[in-house]
Amino acid sequence: GRMGLMPSNDFHQISASGGWNFTRNTRLTSTFQYGVAKQNEDFLPYTINGPAAPGLPTQTPGTTLTVPTALPRNSLDGEIKNTLFDIGLTSRLLPKLTVRANYLYNERDNKTPQSWYSYVGGDTTVQTPIPIGANPETINSSRVRFNLIPGTKENRFKLDGDYEIFRRTLLRAFYQYQKIDYEIASEELRTDTKNDRYGAELRHYANEYVTGALRYQRDERRGSDFVNARPYQASYTTAFIAATPFDNLPTLRQYYVADYNQDLIRATGTLMPMDTVNLTATADWYERKYRGPDCGGPQDQTNPAFIIPSDCLGLQEAKGSSYTLDASWTPVDGLSAFAFYTYSAFDTEQTSRSWGGANLPSNPARNWGASLENRDNTFGIGTRFTPADRRWDVGAQVIYNDGTAKTSVGGPVVPATAAGVPDANYKLTTFQIFGKWRYSKSIAFRANYWYERLRTDDWAYDNAQPWTSNNVLLTGQQSPEYSAHVIGFSVAYENW
Questions:
Q1: Among residues 13, 59, 9, 58, which one has the least CA distance to residue 32?
Q2: Cβ pair 177, 222 in contact under 8 A
Q3: Cα(87)–Cα(98) distance, rounded to whole angstroms?
Q4: CB neighbours of 301 closer than 8 A, spacing ≥ 6?
Q5: Residue % of the chain over a pLDDT of 90
């Protein structure tokens, strides 16, 4: 096997921005950006496990793979053009009312050429040839693939405003509409998605020592007809699709473009019991429920031989919450310290169906479900001192993170005697010392020491060898573990 590193690439961008004050209370701002990203690193050969070819390194002895069809091009010749235009208007219409409007256009135009590739599966199979002059669409092979070039056009409009409903009490309301068109539409799961996001926030300043805010947000995503097999069918030959019309269940929706309803609630409170102490508490909760669209409807029946029950498989819901307590202390001028603790939880529920061979995709007895629970604890403490003359300063901080991911699998297809999925665990400790000394008005020296230690235990990596999968060359990577020491020193020069 042979694996390439991440390819080299180039990105060039020009941007312009500006603003205009119509009046003291009304301002217009705008930004324009245009960039081009290119990647033309030479491809590695399909395989080196075969007869020697001009320009290739010595082949592995004893291997007999043949590669009758050359790569269609020397490199991907990838090119993506990005265009962004953002314009905003802010106006204080009344002494107690401020309104903001914003429009954003963002286009990702993918100009990468498309070609047919006949790859060598797992570096162990003989290549399927594409004869010169032959139409690749007539070849019935899962190894002949057509590269897809996804692109997007985003239009987003947002309107929000602040109004002081009572003394020290501010009400903010907002609405945002977002539409994303996916290009090339014939190669995408959906041709477009639309998001409507709206909400309100109530913020109260009781006095200079106590403030609080409560926020609610609703997000709804809808879109065009969802065709699960469209990208799959666009990347394989017509001859192969005739025999194998889909790779995943037609009723298995992809969460990143599927419809959903999401609710979010956030509460924040700040307390200053004394001038030198500041306490802040924040709580977040959200729930996202996935829905449709029309799973199992007529558009999903890609083969009359498989009538799929109308049920929406895939990610069903996701919910999360986090709670943070943050404290800062400034006993004297120039000396400060902080400490915080965050607990977060993230859970998902998903369903699917095992099928293949004699197991038809319409058999609900092959259903399975999985629940994932992630729990995370993060602690941090630090301090910093700057003398009155500000010629130097020094500080230190420690952060510790401890997380666990639990997976539960069940359903008719899962045997009662099946072993449970092990938990995944990870621990990260970071310690940092930093300082600055201003030698003169123009010259300053900075130094930094950073120690970091990571320990993980993840069943998805452990004991997975490069040859564990028949179709993919794995890296043999195990659960990451490292201890790192970083020492930095810099000199800053200012002459204005």
A1: 13
A2: no
A3: 17
A4: 250, 307, 308
A5: 69
CB atoms near residue 383 (< 10 Å): 14
Confidence class of residue 56 from pLDDT cuts 50, 70 and 90? very low
Tell me the backbone φ, ψ of residue 469, rounded to 5 degrees. -100, 145
User: Where are the extended beta strands (E) located within 120-258?
Assistant: 144-146, 151-166, 169-183, 192-205, 210-223
What is the reported pTM? 0.84
**Could you tell me which residues are beta bridge partners of residue 288?**
262, 318
| b/e code 179-202 from CB counts within 10 Å (16+ = b) | ebbbbeeebbbbbbbebebbbebe
Token pair recorded at residue 93: 């219409």
pLDDT of 51: 60
Q: What phi and psi values does residue 460 have, to the nearest 5 degrees? A: -70, -20
Neighbours of 21 (CB within 10 A): 10
3-state secondary structure 77-129: CEEEEEEEEEEEEEEEEECCEEEEEEEEEEEEEECCCCCEEECCHHHCCCCCC
Compute how many other C-beta atoms are within 10 angstroms of the C-beta atom of residue 3: 10
Give 36's pLDDT tier (boundaries 50, 70, 90).
very high
Do the Cβ atoms of 142 and 127 come closer than 8 Å? no
Distance (Å, rounded) from C-alpha 152 to C-alpha 257?
Answer: 13
Does residue 56 contact residue 48 with C-beta atoms inside 8 Å? yes
Q: Are strands 97-110 and 116-118 parallel, antiparallel or unpaired?
A: unpaired
Give 69-79 pLDDT, tens digit per residue.
999 999 999 99
Please give the torsion angle defined by the CA atoms of residues 231, 235, 239 and 240, in that order, rounded to the nearest 10 degrees: -80
Percent of the chain at pLDDT exceeding 70: 92
Q: What is the mean pLDDT of the chain?
A: 90
Average pLDDT over residues 335-346: 97
In tens, the pLDDT along 431-447 reads 999 999 999 989 999 99
Task: Give the mean pLDDT of 395-420.
Answer: 92
Span 397-414, mean pLDDT?
94
Q: How far is Cα 238 from Cα 221, in angstroms, rounded to an integer?
A: 33
C-alpha 66/C-alpha 99 separation (Å) is 67
